[in-house]
Amino acid sequence: MELNRLLLLTSFLLHLEEGRASPTRFICDNRLIQKYIEEAKEMEKRMGQCQMLPALSCPMVLPLVDFNLQQWKSKPNETKRREILCDLALLVGAVAGAQGQVTQDCWARQLSQLHQHANSFLRLLQTFGWEAGPWELGCSLSSTEESQVTSIFLTYRQLVQGKLRLFFRELAKDLCQQGQGGGRDPPCRTW
Q1: Percentage of the chain surpassing pLDDT 90?
Q2: For residues 81 and 168, is the Cβ–Cβ distance under 8 A?
Q3: What is the pLDDT of residue 95?
Q4: CA-CA to 58 of 20 to 30 Å: which in 46, 98, 171, 185?
Q5: How far is CA 139 from the centre of its chain?
Q6: Interatomic CA distance for residues 168 and 125, integer angstroms
């Protein structure tokens, strides 16, 4: 189990420049979450290159990821983390279910990439920063059934762009103010 956690963290940190790989840097450097937001947008664009896909014969259950900003800000970080975990778990399940129904290569590739990204965030949040023990699924979130594969990609982008981005920003306020220069890179010295 510890080896899996280490491998997961390492895979995320590989996206960072060499010499800057630390869990705090992952949170403090908002360029990484921006990279995932841009990748989510790109996945949505690439769907347009695939042939039209008929509705799924078995609708997928997706989390409703819209939220009230004031209510979100008032929640403790652990509550936010658990809510995002529930959203991601449901989303990963929906992607896996859609993969079982899609036979076109183009859609299958896009769903595979989406599954990889969403599952990576799920595993990261299961292990990052909290030592209280293993995460247990105790979700009571709002959901909807969707028959269109495009809805899965839209939900993922909204989740990354909304709750995940704001959650990492909140963590950065706590982690990055503690001797990390507020999350900014130190200026380069030329002498």
Answers
A1: 45
A2: no
A3: 96
A4: 46
A5: 17
A6: 10
